[in-house]
Amino acid sequence: MQEVKHYQEIINKRLEDLNFPPGPAALYEPIRYLLALGGKRIRPALTLLAAGMFGCKPERTLSTAVAIELFHNFSLMHDDIMDKAPLRRGQPTVHEKWNTNAAILSGDFMLIESYKFIAENDPADLTEILAIFNKTAGEVCIGQQLDMEYEKSDAVRISDYLEMIRLKTAVLLGASLQLGAVVAKASQSNGQLLYQFGENLGIAFQLQDDFLDVYGEASVFGKQIGGDILENKKTYMLLKALEMADRQDQDELERWIASTDHNAEDKISSVVRIYDKLDITSHLQHEMNRYTEKAFSALALMEVSEEEKEPLRALAQSLLVRTQ
Questions:
Q1: Confidence band for 1, pLDDT divided at 50, 70 and 90
Q2: CATH of domain 2-319
Q3: Which of the 8 DSSP states describes residue 40?
Q4: SS3 content of the chain, % helix, strand, coil (to 5)
Q5: What does the pLDDT look like over 15-42, one tens digit per residue?
Q6: Which of 284, 278, 310 is nearest to 203 (CA)?
Q7: Beta pairing class for 87-88 and 91-92
Q8: Alpha-carbon gap, residue 29 to 145, rounded angstroms
Q9: CB 202 within 8 A of CB 169
């Protein structure tokens, strides 16, 4: 994990050195604020890790890594508006601290900046890099739209949900790794296997995020606990509970979903009681394990030494035992 920490330090230093003009403050300050809230910089670290597996120095890959982190934070800033989220990394979200217009425009600017960093790549690789980056950006938007639509739909299946989180979350992890391989001029097959590793890891990661949203601690998790329940998010946990519940518990879940006038703590505690009764966490863990195994199977097929794979394997394992 020392290698990962080293890469995270490199990324943080580069983000701190971003040279935004002093004004207009309402455009740049929200960006500085969100980036200063930190985060683990997992996605850009994956880019540097992937490139490093093929002997590529961090300085050659850093622009791509920064582009990915800026894109990720752009999506968070806009997602928080759509989700009406009050907290991000334990602090007020940008739209709460400033206003919705500021969050929209500052997010847009981060997206534009991400493309400026992508453009710093070797022109010989730029067509492939842009194809991956653009495809991923579009998929993330599709995933967010599906997430919002599913809140109001009664016909969402577990397979629908898994596809939605693949698009909204997992494809960016896969692309982060694949882009590192492209910059390092690795073989196409190794790049595809890295993408598969990241995509499956991303689904497992999001399933764990769903668990932490219900059973984590706000001071550790950095977000409102039970937010998915309050927003009627069709998570794996809710869909599995609806699938397994008897008529009485199913009716209670559906009443809470339909309710518009309720005490938030009552709703959360009632839904969690049903999750506990049905042992939903065991089913969630089984699904997480399934995707984790698919991720490590892809990693095993890569044509690099086991020693070169180890930092990526260690990072993946740490992500899947996290508490925040």
A1: low
A2: 1.10.600.10
A3: -
A4: 75, 0, 20
A5: 999 999 989 999 999 999 999 998 899 9
A6: 284
A7: antiparallel
A8: 27
A9: yes
